[in-house]
Design goal:
By secondary structure, this protein is of the alpha+beta class. The chain contains 21 helices and 9 strands. The protein has helices at about 5-10, 35-40, 60-75, 85-95, 145-165, 165-170, 185-200, 205-220, 225-240, 295-300, 320-330, 335-350, 360-375, 390-400, 415-420, 425-435, 440-460, 460-465, 470-480, 490-500, 505-510, and strands at about 45, 80, 100-105, 110-120, 120-130, 135, 260-265, 285-290, 295.
Length: about 500
């Protein structure tokens, strides 16, 4: 099985009690590089007009006077009136990257000019506005509610062109063979098998259900134990061979074209074909109106014609950005998957030896994931349905691991690590108190919830053998935005262990 499949990302299949998880990071589904590059792009900074706008020439028509007044109302204090490009460049020369202003060029004919600074150079664009449509640049299709949003989107695209060309080149060099290893297949493989089974049944074909059942059964096989497991793990890490092709989750012969349309995504979104971030503020990519497949425009050209509209109703929450998820549940600060799993673990797993360290069956974890995606808050997670509490614990870890932006975000990671390296406990706690303030609200609330839960788990160490350090060893690869390919997490584990031990003090100060 490929290392970045859901079963691999969640836990290895073990026996009834399961097998211990490795403490080294597991390959994650989403690629963070483009997202981190977007964070580094210069922010828009309007250059306010400090002078009294000159009146239009005495011979100006009433229409010209009204147009000048309307521009002042439309663009606000960043409108500088009549101004040539040399004067605009002189103003921008003393400003930081991202600074911009709006002006009326002496040669303009029904348009205004947006002048902005990027990479220490001034750029000029013909700026237009249409009521009910928004702001746009001549010759471009994108529309924006404000000039600020337009500049933000432009600065990100400039920054990507300057710094992300190797990644974009990799995206452009992909082939259709990447589909089987895509996040779309990783997250939805079991659902597609189930839907294929249904379609095969409706078509009266015995082959499709049998093939689907075989695919599910193959995932349920137990992983090798003891020395055999260690040997298999060492081989997989040393050989670095190309992963074996994934089983086709839709063995049924099936073709249906996707209906991709350019889409403006709210919140953070990643391409389900290449796993890279959809950058920008508007028209970041495309979305299939039938099944919900999200992709870069270029990537969508490689997606095979296997649109399954029924998938849209069970797309679910795994792999969705945390802030977006919380916005969908305005009455809860904690996503329902986290709440339900924590409640179940605290009800019947606190005295389970090796809780969170010992994994459940990968196939049962996948089944619970599918149920949570399909049924949401109403999912039956009782002991009758899922007798092995390690399945609940493994599903919670899987949910957190599939977050595109980890609980301890990329921006906050350096602050947390600096705090953990401070040897004086009082100063360390103060620095950690400041570090958690760098988290977005959804991440702050969920991290607090998880740390307080893990603190309660650690309080039963005498029975469950899971103290703060042991829990930190298990959760560090999941909760922390560790750099790709990092294998030594000693400092991260120490920092997270301290967070768990002192969470009440740290969050009480906030």
């Amino acid at each position: 099985m490929p290392r970045n499949t859901v079963a691999g990302a969640g836990s290895a299949a073990g026996g009834e009690g399961g097998a211990p998880e490795p403490s080294s990071p597991v390959q994650k589904v989403w690629k963070p590089e483009l997202y981190k590059l977007q964070l580094e792009a210069p922010a828009p900074c309007p250059l306010r007009c400090q002078r009294t706008l000159p009146l239009p020439p005495a011979k100006s028509t009433a229409e010209a006077v009204e147009a000048n007044n309307a521009a002042g109302r439309l663009y606000g204090s960043e409108y500088h009136g009549l101004m040539g490009h040399l004067e605009a460049e002189q103003l921008l020369a003393n400003a930081r990257d991202g600074s911009y202003l709006v002006r009326r060029s002496p040669q303009s004919d029904g348009y205004y000019t947006l002048s902005l600074r990027f990479n220490k150079l001034a750029k000029h664009y013909k700026l237009l506005h249409k009521p009910g449509v928004g702001h746009y640049l001549r010759g471009q299709d994108k529309r924006f509610d404000t000039v600020h949003d337009m500049v933000a989107d432009g600065l990100i695209n400039f920054h990507m062109q300057l710094h992300a060309s190797p990644i974009i080149q990799q995206i452009n060099q992909q082939t259709r063979n990447c589909y089987q290893q895509s996040p779309y297949m990783t997250l939805n493989g079991r659902k597609l098998r189930a839907l294929s089974n249904e379609m095969g049944g409706k078509a009266g074909s015995g082959a499709a259900p049998a093939a689907a059942a075989a695919a599910v059964t193959s995932e349920s096989k137990e992983a090798p134990k003891g020395m055999e497991a260690a040997v298999e793990k060492q081989k997989s890490e040393e050989e670095e061979e190309t992963p074996a092709p994934a089983l086709d989750p839709m063995p049924l012969v099936y073709e249906k074209l996707h209906h991709f349309k350019v889409h403006t995504f709210k919140g953070l979104n990643w391409c389900e074909f290449c796993a890279n971030f959809l950058w920008g503020f508007t028209a970041q990519g495309v979305k299939c109106e039938a099944c919900g497949f999200v992709a870069h425009t270029k990537c969508s050209e490689l997606v095979p014609p296997k649109c399954v509209p029924d998938l849209k109703r069970i797309r679910g929450v795994f792999g969705t950005d945390l802030t977006t998820m919380v916005q969908l549940e305005p009455h809860h600060l904690i996503p329902f998957v986290v709440r339900r799993c924590v409640e179940e673990v605290e009800a019947r797993g606190m005295l389970q030896e090796g809780i969170y360290r010992v994994s459940g069956f990968a196939d049962e974890i996948e089944a619970l994931k599918l149920a949570l995606d399909r049924d949401g808050e109403k999912t039956d997670m009782s002991e009758t349905t899922y007798g092995n509490v390690n399945v609940i614990a493994g599903t919670l870890k899987l949910y957190l691991r599939l977050l595109p932006v980890p609980l301890i975000t990329f921006q906050a990671y350096p602050s947390f690590m600096a705090a953990g390296r401070n040897g004086k406990q009082a100063e360390q706690l103060q620095l950690m108190t400041e570090a958690v303030r760098h988290l977005p609200p959804a991440h702050y609330s969920c991290l607090q919830y998880m740390l307080e839960h893990l603190k309660r788990v650690a309080s039963h160490y005498a029975v469950n053998k899971m103290n703060e350090h042991n829990l930190a060893t298990v959760f560090a690869p999941t909760l922390i935005a560790t750099p790709q390919h990092m294998t030594n997490l000693t400092e991260e584990i120490f920092m997270l262990s301290s967070l768990i031990a002192h969470c009440k003090t740290i969050f009480a100060r906030n």
